[in-house]
Amino acid sequence: MVRRFRRVPLALDARLAAGSGALRMDDAGSESIPANTSPRRSTWMRIRVALLVVLLATLWLALVGWASDAPPGATFQPAERIRLEGNDFHVVMGAGVESGRRLGINAVGAEHMALQSHALPEAIDAAAFPILRYRWDAFPRTLELSFVFRRADQPDDVHTVTLPPAGSYPGYFDLSDVPDWTGRIIEIGFAEFPTAQLVPADIAFRPFALIESELWSPSWRGSLGALGTDWSAYRPWALMSVSALGPDAPWPHKPAPVVLLAIGLAASLFLVMLVLARSWRWLGVTLAIALAGGWIALDLRWLGEFADRHVLTRELYAGKPWRERASIEPDTALIAGAQRARAWLARMPADTHVIVSAVAPYDILRLAYHLLPANVAPVGVLSNPAASGAMKPALLVVYDDPSWTFDVARHALSNADAEYAAELVYAEGTLRIFALRGASR
Question: N or C: which end of the chain has fewer CB within 10 A?
Answer without folding.
Answer: N
